[in-house]
Every structure is written in C-alpha cells, then in structure tokens.
Amino acid sequence: MTSATDTPKKSGGFSDIRKMFGGGQSTLRQFGILGSLLVIILIFQIWTGGLTLSPTNLINVVNQYSYILILAIGMVMVIIMGHIDLSVGSVAAFSGIVVAKAMADWNLPWPFAIVLGLVVGALIGAWQGWWVAYVGVPAFIVTLAGMLIFRGANQVVGQSTTVPVPSEFGVIGAGYLPELPIALPFNVLTMLLGLIGVAWIIWNEFRLRGQQKRTGSDMAPVWVSILKVVLLSAVILWAAWLFATGRPGTSFPVSGIILVVLVIVYSFVTNKTVFGRHIYAVGGNRLAASLSGVKDRRVDFFVMMNMSVLASLAGMIFVARSTASGPQDGNGWELDAIAAVFIGGAAVSGGIGTVIGSIIGGLVMAFLNNGLQLIGTGADLVSIIKGLVLLLAVGIDVLSKRSGGASIFGIWSRRRQARLETAVPETPAVEPTAGTNETSIPADNRQP
Amino acid sequence: MKRIALAATAVAAAAALTLAGCSSSERGGSGDSTDAAGFAADSSIGIALPDKTSENWVLAGDLFTDGLEEAGFKADVQYAPASNTVAEQQNQISSMVTNGAKVIVIGAKDGKQLGTQLQQAADAGVKIIAYDRLIENTENVDYYVAFDNFKVGQLQGEALLAGLEERSGHGAPWNVELFSGSPDDANSAVFFNGAMDVLQPKIDDGTLVVASGQTEIAQTATQGWEAENAQSRMDSILTSTYGSQEIDGVLSPNDTLARAIITSVQQAGKDMSKVTVTGQDSEAESVKSIMEGIQYSTINKDTTLLVEQTIKMIQDLQKGEEPEVNDTEQYDNGVKVVPAYLLAPVIVTKENAAEAYANVPSLLEIVESY
C-alpha cells in the first residue's frame, strides 16, 4: 500500500505511465500478469531460436488454445459468483458427440448442427443452473455430478467410439480467413482486421479523454495517451502482420475470430451492463446485493447456463479441429480453464476477476505449454511446471493482497514483528486478571 | 515495486517486438520442399507416442531415442500426458512440424482425431508413419508399420491345433470353445478372422467341435477386453455344455483373457495339463504359466524389431528412396489404402520360449528360472 499512497506526490513524472491502463489496484495486477506473459514469450522466443513468434507457431497457439480460452470466459463469471464448474469438459464432449452423430446419422447440415450444439449446451446449462440457483445444491456438487453424467452420456451416444465429422464442419476449428484475389504477399483480410483494431483503439482513447474532460476527472498527460495508442497499435499491427504472413492458405484462424468476438462481447457485458454488474455485486457480497434488490438466484442461473453454452461451443471447436468427436474429448479441460482464471487474477472467494485477465492467464499457460513442447520437454515435466506456475501466480497474488506489496523482506520483517508482539503479552497473561481456563492452563504448563 | 514491474513489462514488450522483427515471412518461400530429394542426414525426427499406459510404449520410446541418435538424426520423442491426452498429442505433433521435423512417427492415442495436424504436416512436406496403430480418415498418412494381426490370428489357430494333438491324449474330434476381443477394437475382428481362417475348415470337416455352438464373432466377443467378462462367459459355457463331456481347447485372443479362462476351467475341476489355451502379448504372468505347463502358447511381438523397421524406413526417406512395404491392400483407412510394412509375429510355446525372448531380458529371466 505504501507506494500507492506515494503516487499523487510524484505526478507529472514517469509514474504517470500507470494511468495508461486506468490505474487502480486490479488493473495493476493484470498489468503484472501481462508482464509475466511477455517475459514468458520472450524467454521462449530466445530459447527456441525464434520459433515461438513465427507465424506458423502463433497460428498453432491460437488454434490449440482458443477453446480453453473460450471456457475461461465463462469460467471467470462462474468464479466471480463464488461458484466453480467442473462439468465443462464433459459437457463439451457430450455436445460434441451429439453434433457429430447428428451430422453422421441424420445428415444434418453443419450450420444447423452448430445451432443444435448450442441448444444442447443451453439445456444442460439450464438443468445445472436450476439445481444451483433454485434447489440450492452447491455448484461444486452439481457440476461434479454433471461431469460424471455427461461423460457417461457421451459414451452412451457414441458407444465409446470416435465419430468423424464432415470436412466442412472443420471451418470453426481449423478454418482461416480466406484469401482475397489480390496479389499481395500477405492475407488482406487479416491485415484489415488489424487496422480495424487500431482504429478502435484510437477512437476509444479520444472518447475516453473527451469523457474525462467533460466530467473533470483525473486525466493522463497527452504524451501518455499517445504512447499508449502507439504501443498498442504497434502490437496489434505487428501481430496481424505475423498472422497474415504465415504459410499460404493459413491466416488468422476462425476459432480466433470467434474468441476475439466473445472477449469483446463478454468484457462489455461484465463491465457495462446491469446483469454484468450484478455478477460482481452478488459475488462480492451476496447478502448486500440481494438486500439491494439484485435477484441473486437469477444471476446464478444464467451464469451457470452461460457456462454450459460456452462449453458446448468449445467442444464443437475442438471436434472441428480434430475432424472427429472421441470418447476422450474434454478430459481435464475444466482444470485448464480454472487455472487460466486464477492466474488471471480472480479471487477464490469470488467478487474479483475480469474476462481480459483470464484470457491473459490462459495465454500464459498456452505459451508456457507451447514453448516447453517446442523445446522438447516431456509431458511429465510440463505438468509439474504448469502446476508450479499456477501455485506461484496465485501465491504472489494472495501475499500481495495480504501485505500490500509482495516484498519478501517486508513479509519476513512483519512476521518477526508479529512474533515479538505475541511473545510480549504472554507474560502479562499469567497475572490474575483472567480467571478463565484459557489463560490459566498455559500458565500452569509453563511451571514445570 | 510497482514501478519495477511496469518498467520490466515495458522492456519485455520492447524486446519482444525487436526479436519478432527477426522472424521472417513464411510466404513466397514455398515450393522448395520436393519430397523425392530426401533431406539432411541430421534432421529432426518426431516420435509422438500415446500416454505411458503400457511398458511397451516406454520401451519403444527408449529404443527410438537410442536408435535415431545412433543413425545420426535428432530424436524428438514425446509421450502424450495422462490428462487431455488426445488434444495434447495433437499439440505435440504441431510443435514437431514447427520444429522442422522431416518425418513424424505416430503411435496414435485416437487414430481418427489427427486430420488437421496431419494436413499441416503434409503442407510442410513432412512424411507421416503410423506406428502400431493405423491413422484413419486422412489421406496424409504415408506408411504404416505394425505386426501382422491377421497372421497373429492364424498363428493362434495353428497353435490351438498343435496343442490339441499334443495335450488331449486322444485323437480328433476335439471339443473347443472360441473367444474374441472387444467389439469396439478394430483389431479384434482381424485376430478372430485370422484364427478362423485356420479353424473353420477343421470345424467344417468335424475335426473340431464347438460344443456350445457359439462360433459367431458377436457371440464370442469380450466387451472391453475385460478378464471378468471372459471368465463369466467361460463359467456359463462349462456349466451348460461340459457337464458330461471334456473340453480340449480354448481359442483366446490375448493373455489376460487366457488367464481368466484358465481360472474358470480350473475352478470347474478340469485338469489344465490336458487343455490347450492360446494367448497373445507375452505378459510376464502368462510366460510363467506357459513355463509351468498351464497356458499353451502366447505371441511375441518384438518391439525392438518394430522400432528397427521404422528407423530403416526413415533412413530410406532421408536418402530420397521409396521405403520397402510388403502390403498395399489390407489397410484401408477410409480415405486411402495405406502402404504397410507388416512384421511377422512369433508364436511362443514352452519349447521355443528361450529363443523367442532372446531380445527381451525381463522375459528371458523368467524363462531361465524354470
């Protein structure tokens, strides 16, 4: 906390840069995670001799982890509510096999199959949401049951076999932005997407400054705004360039576009809409929220339902990418999604967490996994490293929250201080002021 | 503290940007990967194996690492983890392609779910060899190396006939019962059809009598390859059919089921030294049983030979030559017939055990202790 109180004095200097992302405690934490992500990418970029940020690998990472990141979007909302959803992997597998079977056995056209999958997800979500919200069974139990039920249901429908899907369906999991018939050495649509992103950043900054001026609130200096816009635009354009110059036939993946759209929509929903703010309100203090008129059960219901719909979508993307739905699909996905959310700064107690943070948390895991695989680390070690990173990320978070700054020395000295403080009152405790058992027993024990 | 974090992030971002500038565009450079020319002798070779569920995969991985390094290649051997196995194997294969592997050998966790990754590999000019398990529903699998499973079935059938002659103490006709593997495993039918290729003529001419009358593959199936299913089926057959007559032999597709069948026969009070039971896989328990004169035979599929053959194919590809195959008809993966090199399995009985396990120290030790 000390440095936070220092800040106003130093205005006008380098510390203004913190205003780049709006300042505040939670954005700063996300900033730290973003920093770790960049460091991880940097380390592996050097270690793999430039493979990590090669177009092919970036496209791979998006394709490989988009479904986990989509799960993380739903999961962060569940976790903000103070719940957990263990069933996402099984729900994804069940929707996947239903969709695959529908296309194989009934010749259902693939766009309808996607709709069918989403409906299945919504029904499962309504079922689980009902148990959580209106019956009052803890989400942990409801979704643990769901995990078993829908894994079994997957195997009943698919008879424990792998069911192939038609190749057109593959577009949502392994498709790319198409090439326009323009003879340029890059994918035009991908670059266009990048330019739209840049335009949005500039417009957003203008709007923000305008708003701040009108309300007369604390404004960042102009140079910080310009630096922010230039930096973000550079990152976006350069990323777009990498995606646009991959192997011919590949560009920004369709699953990535789905992900980006969902991130924008859900960030908006959680930050700007009444429903979104209710999620934080209920997650932060359920009683206070319901006393102020928030229908907390309805929020529970829709958050759980939403999670299953997103799980179905993730399952279908995976099936599309795998060209088939198998009995093993979705095994362990819930854990990857939950890990992403917590690395992304959500609190176990609920009330805290953001969609963007969870995406960055998921990307930390994704680049870590990808980098370790590129340098040929065995699956056993990868698992250990991922586990340690999760523990470390949440550990630092917990420590910094408890002591207002994660300085090891600070923690140590505070601990020492605490020990001294507890040691001192022990002697007066022997004094006859207290006749209760609690104090007299330790006093007797000390006698022999 | 916070200022340090901010500064570090800014530095990292800047560094990442600069470094990324080094990675060049991948467009326009295509068309240089002509497959006929072969590739550099020290190229990276990817080996993607499923999770370490059986000793066999661990052994194969070690043999590949040593064998490929010896041949001058860079070996990139990866096992899929126990959780999210299929997806992680897909990722590993993609990473191998990114890493510039020239050949990727795949022991698939699920042979039907690798289409996208193999397309990626094919686009990058990588050759794919399916190892032990066929990869289905994709045109991008170049070769298949495995033991000949039809031959396994034939050898089991022959072993059953030889065992009946040797053990039953009487001439034909002999009473036998048939078992097959799990219906969801494509190999089950291959084993069974191989065995019936030998046994059906003998059933037709009356040399063999299937007293229970159960000769269809659906009737003989063992769901999930589970021992208890085989044991309960054998129990019921013994009760219903063998109250007054003797059973002389049982066709069992593998060792686990063979031991379950043997337990059932022993519990019914029959003398196992007169009954012939076949097997497969050379499991240590069954090798002991064979040396004690209980189970009659098993099959040895020598992993060493399979790995050697695969490395030989990789070396041919490196030189730009067409690798040798010996089957271009049997293995239709749904999109194309995959050219295969099939190795001959070896039947193992008490007589040839020492010779058959010369390459497998752990089993040789068991054999020599008798």
Describe it for me?
Chain B: Its main location: other. Chain B: GO terms for molecular function: carbohydrate binding. The complex is a heterodimer of chains A (448) and B (370). Chain A is mainly alpha-helical. Chain A has 18 helices and two strands. Chain B folds into two domains: 39-141 and 303-344, Response regulator (Rossmann fold); 149-301 and 348-368, Rossmann fold (3-Layer(aba) Sandwich). Helix content of chain B is 45%, strand content 13%. A six-stranded parallel sheet of chain B has the order 2-1-3-4-5-11, sandwiched between helices. Chain B has a four-stranded parallel sheet with strand order 7-6-8-9, sandwiched between helices. In chain B, helix 6 links the parallel strand 6 and strand 7. In chain B, helix 2 (55-70) runs parallel beside helix 11 (303-318) and helix 8 (227-241) runs parallel beside helix 9. The longest helix of chain B has 21 residues, at 2-22. The chains are: A mainly alpha (448), B alpha/beta (370). Chains A and B meet through helix 2, helix 3, helix 9, helix 13 and helix 14 of A and helix 1, strand 2, helix 3 and helix 4 of B.
End-to-end span of chain A in angstroms?
45 Å
Q: What are the low-pLDDT stretches of chain B, counting only 5+ consecutive residues below 50?
A: 20-24, 29-35
Q: Oligomeric form of this entry?
A: heterodimer
Helix fraction bin of chain B: 40-55%
Supply the CATH class of the largest domain in chain B: Alpha Beta
Q: Per the principal axes of the C-alpha atoms, what is the gross shape of chain A?
A: globular
Main sheet attributes: strand count, strand direction, barrel closure of chain B: 6 strands, parallel
What's the SSE blueprint?
The complex is a heterodimer of chains A (448) and B (370).
Chain A (H helix, E strand, L loop, with lengths): L1 H5 L18 H23 L7 H26 L7 H18 L4 H26 L3 H20 L4 E2 L6 H4 L13 H28 L6 H23 L9 H19 L1 H11 L1 H6 L4 H27 L1 E2 L7 H11 L11 H20 L4 H25 L4 H16 L13 H10 L2
Antiparallel strand pairs in A: 1-2
Chain B lengths: L1 H21 L21 E6 L5 H16 L3 E6 L5 H14 L4 E4 L8 H9 L3 E5 L11 E5 L1 H19 L6 E5 L7 H19 L3 E3 L6 H4 L6 H15 L7 E3 L3 H13 L8 E2 L6 H8 L6 E3 L2 H16 L21 E4 L2 E3 L4 H4 L4 H8 L2
Parallel strand pairs in B: 1-2, 1-3, 3-4, 4-5, 5-11, 6-7, 6-8, 8-9
Antiparallel strand pairs in B: 10-12
